[in-house]
Structure formats: C-alpha cells, structure tokens
Amino acid sequence: MTRSSFPRSWRVLASAAVLGAALAGCTNPGDDQSGSSPSAQGGGDDQVVKESSGEGCTLEAYGAEKLDLTDAVVGFSQSEPDTAAFRAAETKSIRDAATEAGVKDLLVTNANNELPKQIADIQNMLSQGADFLIVAPVNSDGLDPALTAAKNAGVPVLTVDRKVTNTHCEDYVAFLGSDFRDQGKRAADALNTVTEGEAKVAVLLGASGNNVTDDRNAGFKEQVQAEYPGLEIVAEQTANFARDEGQAVAEQLLQSNPDISAIYAHNDEMALGAVTAVQAAGLQPGEDVKIVSIDGTRNAVQAIVDGQINAVIESNPRFGPLAFDTAQKFYAGEEIAEDVIISDDEYNRDNAEANLGKAF
User: Fold this and answer.
1) From the CA atom positions of the chain, what is the Rg in Å?
2) Which UniProt keyword terms apply here (predicted)?
C-alpha cells in the first residue's frame, strides 16, 4: 500500500463538460506512456460524459454522513499491476486528481489481478481510516465481503471501469465507465470497413467474470449478425487481456484455421500478441490478417502507424477528475446516477500518426 498526503486547500474541479469520459476497460502489461486521447478531431485527454442512466443515489439515501474531502482519507483499490498501460494511466489520474482536490490523504493499493487480495486491500484501507473508496474491481462478482465491510463502516464506494453486480445505492454509489457493448459494436464497424465486408474472423476474448469481456463480445456479435453477413466468426478463445496469451492463442487459432483473415481482440495487449503470431505464421499483420482492438495504448497506436494494426476503439483510463468531481457532488447532496457513461474515440490509419502523442 502506498500513502500520499496532500495540501488541505481545496481547488474546484473542472465542470462535467470538461471532465468527460471514455473508459474502460482493461489492459495487461504495456509501457507506461502518459498523454491524451484523441477527440473526433484529435482533441485532448479529458473524459467526456456521454450519458447518465439508472436511478439516482443521494447521500441521504445511501445513509452516509457529509464529508469535506479536504479533511478526508480516500482509498483507491487498483485491480491490476501498473505495468499495464491502462492501469498506470488510471492510477496516475487518480493521484493527480486527489492532489487537485486537496484530499488530506490518499491510500493506494494494487490487487495484482487477485480477487482475494483486493478484498483484503479494501478491508485494510478501512482499518486505516478510509472515509471514501474508489474501486477498480478485479471482477464484476465476488467483492461482497469488502463492500459489506465498507457499508458497515459507513464508507461510500465509487466503482470505475468495471461494474459490479451488487446493489446500487446500498453497496456502491455509482459506476463510472465506458459503454463496453457499444465499443464492441464499433469494433465490428471498424473491422467491416478494413476488410471491405468479407473476412473469416477470430476473436481474442478478455478475462472471464467481468462485464467488460461480456459486453465487448456481445456488442461485436450483435453488430456482425445485424449488419455484416460477410464477417464470419470462425473461432474465439480467452486470452485474458494479456499479450503473451494473445500471441499463444492467436498462433493456435491460425494453425487450426489457416483461412483466418481478421482478428478482433478485446484489448490492445492481446492485439499486439496477435501481431507477433501473424508474423510467426509468415503473414503480414494489418494486410494479410486485419486486426482491430480496444484501448488506445501508445504501443497499439504506433502499430497502426506501422501498418500492423488497422484500428483501435479508445477506452480512456483517466478517471481521476470525474471520480473526485462525482464525490464532491455526492457529498454536496446531489443525486448521482447509477451509471455514468463516458464517450470513446477511435484511432485508425487516417488519424493515428497525428494523435500518437495523445495515446496512453
């Protein structure tokens, strides 16, 4: 656990229109590259809220006490190692926003992708006096002991980038993240474009047990079935959001299905592994085998520039400003919607080079 202290002076955070949004998701080991994400015209790194939905939750309904964040201990439970580009950018964003908010003390833990450790981490932060928790869940299910402990301690929980299946406004205040189903649909759109509507497709699935994998897969398949009869999904297999597994699984699938001409990866790390697998098969990634993924890491955007990946649907990990702005509004008595959904952009051959410096 790391602990940081900040000045007690409060600085007002940017408005929701400036804060923005783009998720989620999740990645595994990649370089820690900071920077901005592109807008439709190549804008900045701020998240932009696209929509809010679900019943509202207020401080009174949650049963928590009013809190001044400048006199508060805030805990952040990260799900995966910060060797992952997404996670490194997310953690940095939380730290920076805590400083900007004037939070008295910030506790930061990392579950290393282990659910039991995340439960213990949250319980330990509660024992250290955490007044408010921001949690990036390892899985959508299984956090019950930690969330129950927080509820019993009267400590509100805000979840980011993965949605839990627990009860809204009892176990957690809100979910901040991307529309993962829409990401999947947009990945299908991009794959249809780069393949000119004809391809035998392999899907590299993310880790099981979370809504990111489920929704990115469902959205992709729904869009293919509804709009793109020329895209035939011939294989799919879990590669757990990891580059090494993405390479191994892609190698297997290419050997057993030599007619594969396109790969959809649920995140950039698996896509980068697939690039290596396609090369090992004596084929040219981005040409012989088209590749589309989700995240927006610097390595993947560079691969677009290099012609090895065809498109990446962005998932913005910079949740810090939005998380602390949401906390401030919650403690001011405002109603917070169950789901606060951010918008996501796209990198492709037309804009990747110009926006390389803005990837994370």
Assistant:
1) 20
2) Signal
* For the chain, percent of residues with pLDDT exceeding 70: 88
Contact 305, 359 (CB under 8 A): no
How far apart CA 247 and CA 276 sit, in angstroms, is: 6
For residue 121, tell me if it sits in a domain: yes
**pLDDT digits 0-9 by tens, 59-75:** 999 999 999 999 999 99
Decide: residue 266, CB within 10 A, 0-12 exposed, 13-18 middle, 19+ buried.
buried
What is the model's pLDDT at position 358? 86
* DSSP string over 99-120: HHHT-SEEEEEE-TT-HHHHHH
* Structural domain containing residue 282: 180-314
- CA distance linking residue 61 with residue 23, whole number of Å: 27
Are residues 256 and 141 part of one domain?
no
More confidently predicted of 10 and 162: 162
Give every CB contact of residue 34 below 8 A, 6+ residues apart in sequence: 88, 89, 92, 360
- Sheet with strand 199-205: strands edge to edge: 231-238, 199-205, 262-265, 290-295, 311-314, 346-348
The answer to whether the CB of 26 falls within 8 A of the CB of 161 is: yes
In-domain check, residue 352: no
Decide if 13 is inside a domain.
yes
Model confidence pLDDT, tens digit, residues 150-200: 999 999 999 999 999 999 999 999 999 999 999 999 999 999 999 999 999
Closest CA to 210 of 172, 175, 260: 175
pTM of the model: 0.85
Instruction: Give the three-state DSSP class for 238.
Output: strand
